[in-house]
Amino acid sequence: MDQSIAQQKIKDLTTEIEGKIQQVNATVCDLLYSLDLQEQGGKCDWSDIVQKFCSLSSTFSKLEQILRKPGIDFDDNAKLLKMTQLVPQIVSLEHDNTLQEITEGRLSTFDHNIVPILLRTKLKPVVEDEELSIDRDRLSKQIDVNKQIKSINAHVDMLCSKLSEFSRLHVLDRKEFQQSSHEETMKLVKAVCLGKGIQPKTSAMATTASPSKPSTSAAYQHVKPEIKR
């Protein structure tokens, strides 16, 4: 690859990566501010926090795509950056305002104490120990996590089978249940239109027996008084 083309490619690539890193930095600062506000008893919009996490994940994905993008004579840009060697040209103990502005106040001089840290190709021992501890913890819990995943999958499969069986039985019940009867419908139509099948309403005549009158002879019968002697 021509050296000028490679330098221009590296310059464009670093500029694009710096832009994405600045977006990540701004999103992380907003998240930390929201979480600090929540810890201090303030109210924060959790939907906004979730949206910021989604934006952060999207930015990291775009940054990964930039690194995975095929470059000139390379499979991806990551290999191009790995084969690029940075060599400091000026080491000075004097205060540099431009450096302080670029690093957002983190560095003010580019001296002999800073150069080895910036050119470090390995993590700090403290960070390496933390990563090893995290890896050991992850490996020790991997078996328990797999058991939990299998148990949850078994419960999900059981629920899915129960729901499927319930849905199948519900469909069968709806098919077997007859909503209307053709015979009953025809009877109603004939009764309304033709009057067929309608029985006349009969009222029973109430008969009351008249009281018998006493005979005239019995009514005017004289009773002889009894004479005592």
Automatic annotation (TrEMBL):
Keywords in alphabetical order: Activator, Nucleus, Transcription, Transcription regulation
Chief place where the protein resides: nucleus
MF (Gene Ontology): RNA polymerase II cis-regulatory region sequence-specific DNA binding; transcription coregulator activity
One cellular-component annotation, GO: mediator complex
Record field: compositional bias (Low complexity): 204-219
GO terms, biological process: regulation of transcription by RNA polymerase II
InterPro entries: Mediatior_Med8_fun/met
Location of the region described as Disordered in the Swiss-Prot/TrEMBL record: 204-229
Family matches, as Pfam families: Med8
Subcellular location: Nucleus
Physiological role: Component of the Mediator complex, a coactivator involved in the regulated transcription of nearly all RNA polymerase II-dependent genes. Mediator functions as a bridge to convey information from gene-specific regulatory proteins to the basal RNA polymerase II transcription machinery. Mediator is recruited to promoters by direct interactions with regulatory proteins and serves as a scaffold for the assembly of a functional preinitiation complex with RNA polymerase II and the general transcription factors.
Family in the record: Belongs to the Mediator complex subunit 8 family.
Subunit annotation: Component of the Mediator complex.
UniProt cross-references to PANTHER family, sorted A to Z: MEDIATOR OF RNA POLYMERASE II TRANSCRIPTION SUBUNIT 8
The protein's name: Mediator of RNA polymerase II transcription subunit 8
Protein source organism: Meloidogyne enterolobii (Root-knot nematode worm)
Gene: MED8
